[in-house]
Amino acid sequence: VELGENIALSVAQNSLSALYSTQDGDIYTMPYTSSEANKVSTYSGRVYLNDISDDGQISVWTTKDNDALTLYLNEDDEKTTLGMIDLKYDSNYDSTYVTFTNDQNLAVITNLHGDQLYIKKRGEEAIKVKLGNTLQSATVYTNQGLLSQQDSSKVENLYILVDSDTDNNVYCITLTGERERVLSKVKFFAISNGKILYVDSDSDLYYA
């Protein structure tokens, strides 16, 4: 496939499925099983290609226009606008992250400039979750450990670290979008096998 000059490219984590853009303002996906690319969108201004699933059927990208970012998702060649984020300061980095489960049937899309995340189950509409404050980290945990290491059928809740006016908070989020603060004044946390380790704002270490 002839790609032309000045392209941007994102390749899947575990396959050669690709998401790419051209200098002419077109965005394409090309699953590793195909020899032909699919045009899925156009863009103007700046575009960031965030990720594509191993089978090439789900992809995420972000565009920047003046002081705003717009997040897009494509599934089976159907494009959806996830949302817009107003930038508090100018940045050349869009800070959009896509975390797939191990079987890639579930994805969580985050952006460190925004106060929301999106939960995307394969074949279902993405769910927007308002967080109240910006994310402190794009790392997503489940009850058993990192989201990227779990199969979607075993995921019940998501855990993330969110900024607050004074300290950071850990939130538990259900797959239907309900959220609850479970820890306050946290600098760092990690979860594995139903246990949580965290460091509080006084730099004390806890294990529960």
Task: Describe this protein's structure.
Helix content is 0%, strand content 51%. It is built from no helices and 18 strands. The protein has strands spanning 8-11, 18-21, 26-30, 38-42, 46-52, 58-65, 68-75, 78-86, 96-100, 106-111, 116-121, 127-130, 157-163, 168-174, 179-183, 186-192, 195-200, 205-207. The strands form five sheets. The chain has a four-stranded antiparallel β-sheet with strand order 1-2-3-4, with no helix packed on it. A four-stranded antiparallel β-sheet has the order 5-6-7-8, with no helix packed on it. It has a four-stranded antiparallel β-sheet with strand order 9-10-11-12, with no helix packed on it. A hairpin with a 7-residue loop joins β3 and β4.
Task: Walk me through the topology.
Layout: E1 8-11, E2 18-21, E3 26-30, E4 38-42, E5 46-52, E6 58-65, E7 68-75, E8 78-86, E9 96-100, E10 106-111, E11 116-121, E12 127-130, E13 157-163, E14 168-174, E15 179-183, E16 186-192, E17 195-200, E18 205-207
Antiparallel strand pairs: 1-2, 2-3, 3-4, 5-6, 6-7, 7-8, 9-10, 10-11, 11-12, 13-14, 14-15, 16-17, 17-18
